[in-house]
Amino acid sequence: MDKRKIILSILGVLLIVLAVFGAKAIIDSNVKEVPETTKVVKNVFVETVENRRVPIIVPANGNVTALKKMELFSEVEGIFQYSSKDFRPGQRYNKGQVLLSINSEEYAASVRSAKSELFNNITSIMPDLRMDYPDSFQKWQDYLNNFDVNSTTKPLPEADSDKEKYFITGRGIQSAYYEIKNLEERLRKFNIVAPFNGVLTEASVNPGTLVRPGQKLGEFIDPSVYELEVAVGKKFSDLLKIGENVALQDLDGNQTYTGTVSRINARVDRASQTIQVFIRIEDPDIREGMYLEAKLDARDEDNAIEIARELLVDRSKVYVVKDSVMVLEEINPVYFSSNKVVIKGLEDGDKLVSAPVPGAHPGMKVQIQEEKDTAKAEEF
C-alpha cells in the first residue's frame, strides 16, 4: 500500500513538471520578436544669422480727403436760378465763378429802396450843411453825385468836427448807412462763388429747386492737394518729423505715391493710445476717398534681423541648430508687424531654423538639409 502511494506521488510530480514546461513552450512560441527601431532624424532648413541695421517701417492707413474743401450751405431762401456751369458732380469751376445763384430780385429791390431813402436823407440836409458847415458841403455834394443805388454803397464822408458828426448822426444818416451795409451783406449770400479753382464733388439741388436756409447744396474741393490722416502708436510718434517723405500705396499695392508729413497732433487718443499724423499728398492721380497705406520710417534698429512671426516660440524664443541639435534661444523682439518681427539677441553665424518644424523640442536631433539665404534685415 505504501509503495502504491509513493508511485502515485511520483507520477503526480512528473505530471506537474511536464505541465509547467509545456505551458512555457506554448507561451514562448506565441511571443513575437520586436524589430529593432531606427531613430528618425528630421531635416530642417536654416539661415545663417547676419546682424545689421534694420529700418523700422510703421504701417498705417486711412482715407484721403481734400485739404481744401467747402461744404455749400444756403443762408437764404429762394429759387436756385443760375450757375456759371452745369451744377453737377465732377464739374470744374475757376476761382470767382458763380457756383450757385439764388433768385434775389425781391430782396434786391428792398435794398435799392433803402439806398434811395439814404440818398433822400442826405439831400435833405444839404442846405443846413451849406449854411453851418460850408467847408464840408462839397465832399457831401460829391458823395451824392457819385451815389448809385445799383452799386455797393460807398463809405460816408468823414466828419471834420465833432459838431458835424453829431449833426449827421442826429439826422439818422449813420444808422441808415449801416442798415444798408447789413442788407448788402445779406444780398451777397444769394450768390455762392468758387473761392478757389476746384471741382464740384457733390450736388444736392438742381436749377428751379426751392432752397431754404441751412440746406446743404453740395460740396466743392481743390483737387490739387490732399491729406491722409493716419493713427500711429505713441511710441513711434516722437520719431516722426514734419517734412519727412512717406511712401504710400493702394490696397492692391499696384499704385504707389509719395506724401510728406505735414502735421502731428499733440494729443494722444485715450482709448487707442495713438496719435494722429497728417500726410500731405500732391498727385494728379489721387482722388478723394481713396484708401491708402502709408509706410512711416520710424527708426533704425542696430544689430538686429527680421524673421517671420511664425518662427517665434512663446513670443521671445527661437530655435537654432547647434551640433545637429535643436536649441531654444532667448531673444529680444523689438518690433512686430502683421507677419514679421525684428529681433535682437542672436550672434552672427548662428544657424536659425527658418521654417517651423512639427513636433520640435529642445534636444531634438536634426540634419541641415539645405541652407537658405543669410538672414538679413528687410523692409516691412
TrEMBL record:
Q: Which Gene Ontology CC terms are recorded? A: efflux pump complex
Q: Which InterPro entries match?
A: RND_pump_MFP
Name any one GO molecular function: efflux transmembrane transporter activity
Q: Which domain of life is it from?
A: Bacteria
Q: Which family does this protein fall into? A: Belongs to the membrane fusion protein (MFP) (TC 8.A.1) family.
Report what the protein is called: RND family efflux transporter, MFP subunit
Q: What is the lineage of its organism?
A: Bacteria, Pseudomonadati, Bacteroidota, Flavobacteriia, Flavobacteriales
